[in-house]
Amino acid sequence: MKPPASAIDALLDGTHADPFSLLGIHEGPEGAFARAVLPGAEEAVAWSLSGKRLGKLTRVDGRGLFEGKVKGPRQPVRYACTAGTHEWLVTDPYSFGPVLGPLDDFLIAEGTHHRLFDKLGAHLIDHEGASGVHFAVWAPNAQVVSVVGDFNDWDQRRHPMRRRADIGVWEIFIPDIGEHRAYKYHVIGADGTVLPLKADPFAQAAEFRPSTASITAHPVKMDWGDADHRAHWASVDARRQPMSIYEVHPGSWQKPHDEGFYTWDELADRLIPYVAEMGFTHIEFLPVSEHPYDPSWGYQTTGLYAPSARFGPPEGFARFVDGAHRAGVSVLIDWVPAHFPTDEHGLVRFDGTALYEHEDPRLGFHPDWNTLIYNFGRREVVSFLVNNALFWAERYHVDGLRVDAVASMLYRDYSRKAGEWIPNAEGGRENWEAVEFLKAMNRAVYASHAGFLTIAEESTSWPGVSKPAFDEAPREHLGFGFKWNMGFMHDTLQYMSRDPIHRQYHHNEITFGLTYAFSENFVLPLSHDEVVHGKGSLLNKMSGDDWQKFANLRAYYGLMWGYPGKKLLFMGQEFAQRREWSEARSLDWDLLNAPAHEGVRRWVRDLNRVYTTRPALHACDCEPDGFEWLVVDDAQASVFAWLRKAPDARPIAVICNMTPQVHDHYRLPLPHDGEWREVLNSDAQDYGGSGIGNLGQVTAEGGAAFVVLPPLATLILEFQG
User: Fold this and answer.
1) Which residues form the Glycosyl hydrolase family 13 catalytic domain (predicted)?
2) What is the pLDDT of residues 299-325, one digit of tens each?
3) Which residue numbers are catalytic?
4) Which run of H or of E encompasses 353?
């Protein structure tokens, strides 16, 4: 049957909703019939992919429409086109069958497809005898979706896609193109509005900003050499392992010049040896996904599946992770499922409707960041995000995710005034849809990737953030492995900022944290958030003159490394960076030429080495049995002392003197008589201190030892037996 003229016009304009019904090979009672759009061609002959001539087509429309009978059944075909003296071949994408199948439809519709990153997006595949790229995108309310790119002159008329009506996914296989091709989606909304070109939500590579196109790319394939590393973490309980995390912004740790970035391979040569030498067990990167705006630090991402092009091709990041693992260092990445930016090439009103976000700004607009909140009540959105977590674990072997802004997800009234939010069905402020998403994500990654861990940045007292999210568990339990201890960070930094003469009146700012230290599996975070936006560096938060600032900082780090919980320190603070951090410049590495700064670096290195090699300091980080107060109430002297212990491990005493006064005959209760070796002293001259100490050891008799407590210092003593 000959299509009406209106259908042909729509086809040639790229606005026909079902181009596969008209184009390609169609079988009929009189044999097979071919129809193709071949712009610029004057003549066209159809050939099978095996080289058999199938028939000549006739141009029936000056805009490039060809029709004609062909031999054989429906099959993929290639057209030999001529125009004057020019000849070229075109393999017809409309002669190929679909790539997605009924099982994909079922799992996508159900929201339980855990391999969406293999199905949606752009994938280099072999299909029905041809090599090419399969494109698939979810846009259920669009009239038409076309792939445009550098392979079709960005012409939306060339490759309108096939709509899988049951699931709202559009797909097309385009033969004879490969990797490194730029593309976007041309979307016509349900009301006929042509939307700005959209980057692929599932793109695994993207152009370097300010360009915003997606890039076709092979899955990251390489010879991984990290089997031993992954097997180790799969075999242990992370709560009982040492975790000292070095938080890094990859664009500013070091820079080749003001406007540039080191590639992942260049960073690997510099950063991995440094982290290993410093004794950190983990690197945690601020978000590595593609994002348009440098000062967002990656927290406003437009390409969750694409490592940022700032640092070279995606496989470079895989090589970095592999290299870190070979050196015994784990890699965590910050992950942002809470919100996304409003850049027009991104997810905003992706098919002309509020698809990934909410229509109502009281649910869907984030007032703090001028971003859009994911619609966690929509199973396709949840599936998009859960699959992204699985993607980083599988494709890039990352060891875990630090999940950003969890508190903003859990509460509908977060940063909102009365009337600016909508209560849940029960009239409360909890966002139960977000809760169910977080539980689903944690269940998925923990079930499929042994050794993987998740860490929540959660600043409220939500119950059970790091409690298992089993089906029978309380509704609130989220299933994270760990939670940032924001209370520890806030209280202890406030204490350290006080003049020592006033600290006796604020003793509880150190002791109070131990009342809840084991309510969750905590990470103690001194993160990038504490050294930006006018907050200054950690060094400049300390009280006193310059000598006292350094002494306070060393004492503070000693307190933190001796305190229950895993450790996190933002880059630059390990050598007492003076300036506030800026993403636009490198850290001030020249400070290491100054003895005071180099002393802090050595102190952090040695803290890490003692912490990681002494089970008493890490094996019971999350268990109350591993902690015991020795001196809790000496507010007048501003002295704190406690015991860290673990089964079959030598106990360790941590003592902090937070005044500039030397206590040269301080009675320290100790649970075991005998020799206690001074394994660390923040006042040692090697670290820039005054050199006051205990000549390497103290002796306990009758349940106590008389010790010398240096000024503004932390001592770590290990029982020798």
Assistant:
1) 247-618
2) 999 999 999 999 999 999 999 999 999
3) 404, 457
4) none
